[in-house]
Amino acid sequence: MRAFGMHDQAADAAGTDGDLRTLFGQSTALFATFTGPAHAVDTADPAFLSAFGDDGADLSGLLDEVYRTSEPRARRDVRVVLGSGPDAREAFFDLTCEPRRDASGDLLGVRVVGVETTQVKHAQRLTAEHRALLEQIARQAPLSEVLDGMARSIEELAAEELFVSVLLAEPDGLHLRHGAAPSLPDFYNEAIDGIATGEGVGSCGTAAHRREPVIVTDIATDPFWDDFRGLAQQAGLGSCWSTPVLARDGSLLGTFAMYHRTARVPQDTDFALIRVFAGTAALAIERHHNEVARQAAEAQAESARAALAEAVRAERELRAEAEQRAEAAAQLTAQMRVAAAVQAKTPHPEFCQLGGRAGCTLPAEIKVADSWGDSAWGCAAHVEEILIHVRSVFIASEELGGLAAYLNR
Which residues form a coiled coil (predicted)? Predict the structure, then answer.
């Protein structure tokens, strides 16, 4: 990851400030004057006519009050709907109404001065939503919760209907997985979960591949959507603007996309909103990756500690077992020596003593003993048989060189 120095911080701050100015840096002022108790419009600028019409009928109550009392009045957050149909939008104004007088001081009518506060309200909402997201990231809330909340915030802040989607890059950067898309249909999210990154793979796959924004204004005609056009039509989507979400070292974290139901060209305010929240998504995803890496490192360290403890325990057990075996071997050797000493004094019989009840008339050639001190003389055949079947038996004939001499005869 590249160093994030003062120059980078200043550049990022300047970029953020520029995006906020684009989003909220302009306010519409309006002005109108009315004459007489009937409030006939004397003068009105285009902004006033657009908001309140050519007669100001929506303000009649306020105008009546000012004209009747000859005292100024102020109203905040006066709501109006600008435009109609798909282009309609909600707007808010702060208005100041004051009486108009002639040179003699006689009341002529009412003057209205106002400023649109829609952008201010939106800025306040965006700031509050953005602060809440940063607080979630700081307290390490689950990534899915942060991304879902971010998507919903953008959808609510937008002036027109849109749908937000965040896809997360797999570690190899070759595929994108579902991150958040609260307003897109489930079938659509399931279909694009795991799409490859590559040239011409929709808006998001291409943006991830190019590491730059991809703006598809009309899904119905754009070749990038040839493989997904039917899916988009089924979901009722007309345009898709996708921006790669990149880490500070330039590696791919995912994509951030805005969908609209109709073909649509983004405005400067759209790009500004995308940049603001793409940066927030990058912060959330990087913080998540760091946390996952930290937990994995801790788990690996704990596993290593457990393995070391197990190795120490096993080594202690092996050492104790070896000590027990050495002690047992020493005891057995002592018993063998005692048995050999005892048997050395026993007369050598003429015939084999290992034939059992049937007896054996073969010469007694080899002396055997066990660890308890019992011994006998036997022929070669019976001695071999007892050595195979009785583990505690050994050749005690020292003059024959012991078992080795017998096996190598």
Answer: 294-332
